Here is the input.
Amino acid sequence: MNNIRAAITGIQGYVPPYILTNKELEGMVDTSDEWIITRTGIRERRILKGEGLGTSDMAAEAVKALLLKTNTSPEEIGLLICATVTPDMLFPAAANIISDKAGIKNAFSFDMNAACSGLLYALVTGSKFIETGTFKKVIVVGADKMSSITDYTNRENCILFGDAAGAILLEPSSSDDIGIMDSILRTDGSGKDYLHMKAGGSVRPSTHETVAAKEHYIYQEGQTVFKFAVTKMADVSAEIMEKNNLKSEDVSWLVPHQANLRIIDATARRMGIGKEKVMINIDRYGNTTGATIPLCLWEWENQLKKGDNIILAAFGGGFTWGAIWVKWAYDSK
Here is the structure.
């Protein structure tokens, strides 16, 4: 019987240096610092500046730092998955470009698009290659340059998003006390009507008209998305606890997708855990889509202890949502 689990053995983040504050946004659209903070909890976000820079540049920095940090050579990596909705180009995959920039030559790589739930989907997918013994080392990257698809004349959307990347190393463990223990992933495709990009795909290819109509930016019906996200992210987090007989006191940390502070608070309440157990950095980075969860793990890494029960939870366009139960694999040095 195969008792191998996929354990998270390293985590690394990358955020661009440029900080876009609420104050700066006040000069761009009809908004205010108070209005943004009250509705989202966001005070600032990072933006990738520079000609010709894309998602792969941030992701490659995170991956290279992760390899160095974990004393891993690029040749040891068997698979790299990138969760993103903002690849450098439609093809080749951002994961292919990241691998090249990070010197990873012996791996196969591909992108996964599940919007803000993409990191969870990619993490579960990557874990299966570890559990089956196919690979010994897998890297999962969550990275997005959301500024590239954000309309900075839209006061509702432009306040929400930022740019960042995070990389996770997965390795096998035969211990029942560490690793990815369980997951629940779900999809409701009818959500496409409420959160999507109108043009640029095969149904509505890019034209002068689609560009002029601003159809290559994020479109969302905020209230509908918010109501669905509050319910689904909270419910699935409680469901994975119930499924595995985890009580609130058993959970060391909730690592929620950083989309909206009110959604995060609702999820924590549904799980019965206090704010002291919730990783929150939305105030400094905003919604970085695929990068939010690894950014949290990276920033809280020195507080994590081997054996900690951690719940990762997310909701995204599609609609997609899910939760993963992880037992942390190491004490930070």
